[in-house]
Each structure stands twice: as structure tokens, then as C-alpha cells.
């Protein structure tokens, strides 16, 4: 069985395995069948480009000038007579024939492909209009009459070519998402093989290669830094403009730009497995998917084609009874042209394509357009706490000391002893001491006490650091006891520090709340969107985090398999819910929610449970998603208006309803209005590119 493929009616060389938009002109691709390679016709179609339509337009424009000058209506309007010479009466026929077959034939062949695909549309209407006008005019010429439609035919084809050329120029600028992404990678990479540096094409890289990246260079493949440190500009991948500091062991992404450090990177992913390839794949999936508004516009475009044929037929029949044949055909041609649904077919897909690309540039990837469309109606954003609102790792929350001026000493003793510990709580105190530039003291006789903490000697003093068990029986100052009990109820881990049998203080450790979380919740509140939180932690911990972030409601002690049930609880009130999680144990909840948003965490872009993926763990991007959704929907509605609104007035005028008052819409003017509406739709869609999120 032949493989189903999709092609563009105007550009048959554009062929892909999924539906979507033509990267040349923005038209919907139509289904067709792949032809075997041995079929000669498979290679005959070279398609068309913007330059081809440019050339066809100028040739048709030049040839149209004498046709218009010899037209009876023009001579009467300007009160002159065109030069007469032997055969001059056939000049419009000859030139119009050249225009029809050279400039207009592209519409005929494109209409054929639409009809073969059983998707009649814009090309079908144009082909019907120009074919009717040409055949009728040739017939009139042959029988020796002079009421031809050659000047209408020539100007119509010329204007249609101009309109399509302008549309292609506008759309190709907006349809360059995948092309631009592919340009992010360098063409070559400098690789160390057998101790020798050599320049190789990107396609020859293999996993395990050691790549040299000089200051200012582009990183050629996903990998891990094996030597060197630098700041990497990851704006192309995460939307974050601030360079990110990277050191040995850190992962880097292909296409990102190295700062002022020299790096050696071990390649871990190449080709289709790289982050950039994942982004491109998701962009293509999103462009191939359709939103509800696009489905509506597709149906409207089909029905508009039916309306055009029916109204055109009624117009022709009616005017044949009350006027001349030439006038009747002219009215039908005007109706067919004015109702061409090109603008309608472009209105929604172009906006959706631009918004998908804009999303990728702002740190989140849209897998399904329906998901982005749903975001504008979200009432509640439900966050998974750990790793989303919090950092998902221990950090020092507070230092409590028995004396007001020894806080740094408490941290110094704890960090010095824990410098030999692998416990997460110990690592957190070491990291905090380094951040505060506190010097580490020499220790000896280090000992780990299972389930309690650690012990060591500092300047012959015995230092104990650990849980309440390690200082059991010690004297607790009342203020210290009260404060640590309060912090413990908030779910914080308390590490006590004792020196020579005396407690000098304690360190409260917790899964620290991200500063970005506070900004994200605040931004959502300003947008009149409620927030909720899921956590497996105890009630006290959940209450404290929710209070700190001013979250509207929370669910505590929630097991992974219960998360989807909590989403249902929120949905039972009639509200639209967006769930934000890590895409692993949150998968059922992400699927249950009206909108699933998964944390991509760096290079992980293959999460299947969500409609939208955050490239980085930044909850502030949630507000960006909703804002983009609202902007996208607004542009789609505006474009539907521009694509169809003018038809309400234009179709009756084209049909000649006001002909008795001398008001007529000529075919060439109809073509201008139709093309203008398409250009307006394309230009309006591109305004979305400049909107900030």
C-alpha cells in the first residue's frame, strides 16, 4: 500500500508525511499518494518559489498594459482611440492567451491537485473563474463579436499573481521556524581524536567524541563538559537571556553559544536524539496538529467554496435572462474571485505556527495546539510542590544560635565537620558556608554516627552535629527549644550543633522555596487565576509552603497514585485545571487535567503526558503560556474577521445587487480585495512575533 503523504497545491515539490502548512506559501497541505521513484512524473515537478511568482507577475503585468489600452472600456473612459494596424483586433486575444497559459496555468494545475485530493478551495475557484472568462472570450473572438473579457482576464491573473507573490513573501518570513532552528548548529566541529585536533563535518560526530569549543563558538552537539568552565548563552534553548555558568560535569546543549572560556565537551547525544532535534520535532508536531478554531476555519473555507459555486451559478443564470452574456459571465467571475477562501485557510494556521515558534523561543514547547488554546480558559493552576515550587534539594533555611553573635560560628562548626559527610543535610551546610565565604576549620577523628549525625574534633574540642538524638540528655536553652519545635512543625529538618557537651545552636534545613515560585504565583494572581498545590508532605509542611507563597488551596499527604483524583476534585466544581508536574509520577494527573504542563528539566523534551513542556524548571513560564494563549486566540479571532467579514458586503456587490445604481465590483477589483484580505491576515499574524510575554 502506498504511503500517505501531503503536498501543497501550489508547490508540489513540498512533500511530507504529516499534515500542516506549506513552508513556501503557508497554504494547508493536502493529502496525496506517494509515487514510486521509477515514476518519471515524480521528478518532473520542480514546484514554485517566490521568485517564480515574481517573474510571472512582471511578465503578465507588462503584457496586460496593451490589452487594457485596447479595451473598449478604457478607450471610452479616456476618450481616445488605440493605434490600428493589420491584425490589431487580435492583439488582446494573443496577449491574453500568453498570460492565461504562462501566468494563469499555475492556478489550473493547482486546482487539479485540490480536486484530486477532494479538497476544493481557492485554486478551484480561481481556475474556474479564469477558465470561464478565457473560453468565453475565445469563443466570442472566433465568431467575430467584440464583447470579450480579455482585459478582465489579464488584470485578474496579474493581480492574483501579485497577491500570491506578496502572500508568499509575508508567509515565508513567518514560516521559517524549523529553518531557523536548523541554522543554530555550526557546520563543523573541532574534535580531539587520538590526541590530534581535527575539523570534521557535524554529521561525522559520534557519541564519545571529545569536542573543543573556543570562546564565542557554538556548541555542536549535546554533551557534558569534561574540562574547562565558562558561561553559556542558552537563550535559543531556554529563552533565558542571562548566560549560565557551567563547569566540569555540567550538561550543555547543541546550538547554544560559549562565553569567554575554552571548553572540552564529551558528546553524549547526536542527530535526532539531541535537544534541538527534539525541539524541531515538537514544533513540527504542533504545526501538524490543529486547534478547534482551525478546524472551524477549514470547514468554513470548504463551505465558502460551495457557496461561491452556488452563488456564482445563480448570478450567471439570473443575468443571462436580463443582460448580455459577457456581463453575466463577468458577474459570475467576480463572485468566484471574491469568495476565494485563501485568507480563511491562512488565518488560523499561520497564527498557530508563529505562536508555536514563539513558545519555543520563550522556554516552553507546545506539543498540541489544543493544549495552547485551552490555556486561555484556565481557572486554577495546580502545582506539584517538590521540584516545581521548591528546589527539590536541601538548603539552609535558618540558623538559630544561643548567643546573638555566633550564628556564623554555628555554621562554621557544622560545615567543617560535615565537609567529610555525604549526607544531603551535611552537603547543604557545606554549600551554605561556601556561599557565605566562611573558612573551613581543620578537623580530625571524624566519625559518622548512623541515624544520629557526625562527630569530629576541632582544636581539641569535640563537636557534634546531627538530629535531636545526638544531643539527647544535653541541656536545651528554652528559646532554642521553642524555636526549633516551631520550625520542626513546618516540616524542616533540625541539625543541632554542640561543642564539648554544650549546645551552641541549630540549623534548620528545608526543601527551599524558589524565588521564581513567588513571582509565578504573584503573576498568576494578577491574571485572576487561582493556584493550588499537591504534596506528599505532612499538613504542617503543606500549610507553611502554601502560606509562604499565598497559594489559594493545597492538598497534603497525597500519594502519587492519588494526584489525578485531586485534579478531579478541582474539576468537579466546574473549573478548568492546569496541572504542572515532572511528567513521571505526575503523568496520570497531567493527563486528567484540562491542560498538562510538564517540567522538561534541561534536555528532557520527550515527555508524552503533557500538551506543553517547560524546558527549564521555572514556574514563571506558566504565566507566559497563558498570556501567549490569550494573544494567540485574539489574533485568530481577528484573522477570522479579516478573512470573512468583507465577504458579507463584497459577494452581493460582485453578484451585481446594486448594478441598477451603477455600483459594480469588477473581477480585477475583486481580486485586489481578496488578495488584500490575505495580506492583511498574514501581516496581522506576524504582529504576534513582536509581542512580549
Overview of this protein structure:
Helix 4 runs parallel beside helix 7. This protein is of the alpha+beta class and 693 residues long.
In short:
The protein is of the alpha+beta class and 693 residues long.
Proportion of β residues? Answer: 15-25%
Distance between the termini: 47 Å
Instruction: Describe the global form.
Output: elongated
Q: Give unreliable regions as ranges.
A: 33-47, 173-178, 601-606
What is the count of helical runs?
24
Most strands sheet: 7 strands, mixed
Radius of gyration: 35 Å
Topology summary:
Elements lengths: L3 E4 L7 E2 L13 E4 L7 H4 L5 H20 L2 H7 L12 H13 L1 H12 L5 H21 L7 H25 L2 H6 L5 E6 L2 E6 L8 E4 L8 E6 L2 E4 L1 H4 L5 E3 L4 E2 L4 E2 L4 E7 L5 H14 L3 H31 L2 H14 L3 H20 L2 E3 L2 H7 L4 E5 H5 E12 L5 H12 L5 H12 L8 E6 L3 E6 L2 E6 L11 H12 L3 E7 L2 E12 L1 H12 L3 E5 L4 H11 L3 E3 L7 H9 L5 E5 L5 H6 L2 E5 L12 E3 L6 H35 L11 H20 L7
Parallel strand pairs: 14-21, 14-23, 21-22, 23-24, 24-25
Antiparallel strand pairs: 1-2, 1-3, 4-5, 4-6, 6-12, 7-10, 7-12, 8-9, 8-11, 13-25, 15-20, 16-17, 17-18, 18-19, 19-20
Helix pairs in contact: 2-4, 2-7, 4-6, 4-7, 5-6, 6-7, 6-12, 7-24, 10-13, 11-12, 11-13, 11-23, 12-23, 12-24, 13-23, 13-24, 14-23, 16-17, 23-24
Amino acid at each position: 500500500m502506498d504511503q500517505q503523504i501531503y503536498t501543497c497545491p501550489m508547490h508540489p515539490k513540498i512533500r511530507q508525511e504529516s499534515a500542516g502548512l506549506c513552508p513556501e506559501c503557508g497554504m494547508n497541505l493536502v493529502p496525496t499518494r506517494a509515487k514510486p521513484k521509477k515514476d518519471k512524473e515524480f521528478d518532473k515537478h520542480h514546484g514554485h518559489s517566490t521568485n517564480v511568482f515574481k517573474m510571472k507577475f512582471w511578465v503578465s503585468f507588462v503584457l496586460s498594459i496593451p490589452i487594457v489600452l485596447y479595451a473598449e472600456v478604457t478607450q471610452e473612459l479616456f476618450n481616445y482611440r488605440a493605434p490600428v494596424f493589420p491584425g490589431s483586433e487580435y492583439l488582446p486575444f494573443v496577449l491574453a492567451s500568453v498570460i492565461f497559459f504562462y501566468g494563469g496555468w499555475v492556478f489550473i494545475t493547482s486546482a487539479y491537485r485540490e480536486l484530486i485530493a477532494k479538497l476544493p478551495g481557492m485554486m478551484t475557484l480561481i481556475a474556474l473563474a479564469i477558465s470561464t472568462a478565457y473560453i468565453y472570450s475565445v469563443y466570442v473572438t472566433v465568431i467575430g463579436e467584440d464583447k470579450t473579457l480579455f482585459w478582465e482576464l489579464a488584470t485578474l491573473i496579474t493581480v492574483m499573481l501579485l497577491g500570491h507573490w506578496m502572500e508568499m513573501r509575508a508567509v515565508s518570513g513567518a514560516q521559517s521556524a524549523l529553518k531557523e532552528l536548523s541554522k543554530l548548529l555550526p557546520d563543523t566541529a573541532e574534535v580531539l581524536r587520538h590526541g590530534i585536533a581535527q575539523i570534521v563535518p557535524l554529521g561525522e560526530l559520534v557519541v564519545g567524541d571529545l569536542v573543543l569549543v573556543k570562546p564565542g563558538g557554538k556548541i555542536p552537539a549535546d554533551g557534558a563538559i569534561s574540562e574547562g568552565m565558562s558561561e553559556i548563552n542558552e537563550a535559543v534553548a531556554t529563552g533565558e537571556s542571562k548566560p549560565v555558568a557551567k563547569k566540569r560535569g555540567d550538561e550543555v546543549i547543541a546550538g547554544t553559544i560559549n562565553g569567554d572560556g575554552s571548553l572540552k565537551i564529551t558528546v553524549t547525544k547526536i542527530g535526532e536524539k539531541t535537544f534541538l532535534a527534539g525541539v524541531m520535532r515538537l514544533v513540527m508536531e504542533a504545526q501538524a496538529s490543529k486547534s478547534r478554531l482551525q478546524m472551524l476555519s477549514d470547514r468554513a473555507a470548504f463551505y465558502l467554496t460551495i457557496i461561491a459555486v452556488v452563488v456564482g451559478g445563480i448570478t450567471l443564470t439570473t443575468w443571462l435572462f436580463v443582460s448580455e452574456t459577457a456581463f453575466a459571465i463577468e458577474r459570475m467571475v467576480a463572485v468566484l474571485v471574491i469568495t476565494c477562501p485563501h485568507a480563511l485557510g491562512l488565518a488560523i494556521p499561520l497564527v498557530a505556527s508563529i505562536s508555536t515558534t514563539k513558545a519555543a523561543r520563550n522556554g516552553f514547547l507546545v506539543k498540541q495546539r489544543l493544549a495552547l488554546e485551552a490555556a486561555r480558559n484556565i481557572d486554577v493552576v495546580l502545582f506539584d510542590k517538590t521540584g516545581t515550587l521548591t528546589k527539590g534539594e536541601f538548603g539552609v533555611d535558618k540558623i538559630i544560635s544561643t548567643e546573638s553573635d555566633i550564628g556564623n560560628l554555628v555554621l562554621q562548626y557544622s560545615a567543617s565537620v560535615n565537609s567529610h559527610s555525604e549526607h544531603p543535610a551535611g552537603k547543604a551546610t557545606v554549600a551554605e558556608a561556601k556561599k557565605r565565604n566562611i573558612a573551613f576549620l581543620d578537623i580530625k577523628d571524624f566519625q559518622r554516627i548512623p541515624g544520629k549525625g557526625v562527630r569530629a574534633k576541632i582544636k581539641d574540642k569535640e563537636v557534634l552535629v546531627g538530629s535531636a538524638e545526638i544531643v539527647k540528655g544535653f541541656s536545651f536553652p528554652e528559646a532554642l527549644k521553642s524555636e526549633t519545635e516551631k520550625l520542626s512543625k513546618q516540616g524542616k529538618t533540625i541539625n543541632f550543633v554542640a561543642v564539648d557537651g554544650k549546645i551552641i545552636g541549630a540549623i534548620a534545613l528545608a526543601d527551599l522555596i524558589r524565588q521564581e515560585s513567588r513571582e509565578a504565583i504573584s503573576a498568576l494572581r494578577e491574571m485572576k487565576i487561582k493556584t493550588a498545590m499537591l504534596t506528599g508532605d505532612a499538613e504542617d509542611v503543606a500549610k507553611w509552603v502554601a502560606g509562604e507563597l499565598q497559594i489559594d488551596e493545597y492538598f497534603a499527604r497525597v500519594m502519587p497514585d492519588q494526584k489525578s483524583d485531586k485534579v478531579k476534585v478541582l474539576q468537579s466544581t466546574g473549573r478548568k485545571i492546569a496541572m504542572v508536574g515532572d511528567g513521571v509520577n505526575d503523568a496520570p494527573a497531567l493527563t486528567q487535567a484540562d491542560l498538562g504542563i510538564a517540567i522538561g528539566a534541561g534536555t528532557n523534551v520527550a515527555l508524552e503526558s503533557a500538551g506543553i513542556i517547560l524546558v527549564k524548571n521555572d514556574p514563571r513560564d506558566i504565566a507566559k503560556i497563558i498570556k501567549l494563549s490569550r494573544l494567540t486566540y485574539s489574533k485568530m479571532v481577528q484573522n477570522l474577521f479579516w478573512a470573512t467579514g468583507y465577504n458579507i458586503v463584497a459577494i452581493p456587490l460582485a453578484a451585481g445587487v446594486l448594478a441598477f445604481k451603477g455600483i459594480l465590483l469588477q473581477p480585477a477589483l475583486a481580486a485586489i480585495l481578496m488578495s488584500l484580505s490575505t495580506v492583511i491576515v498574514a501581516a496581522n499574524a506576524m504582529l504576534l512575533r513582536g509581542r512580549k510575554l
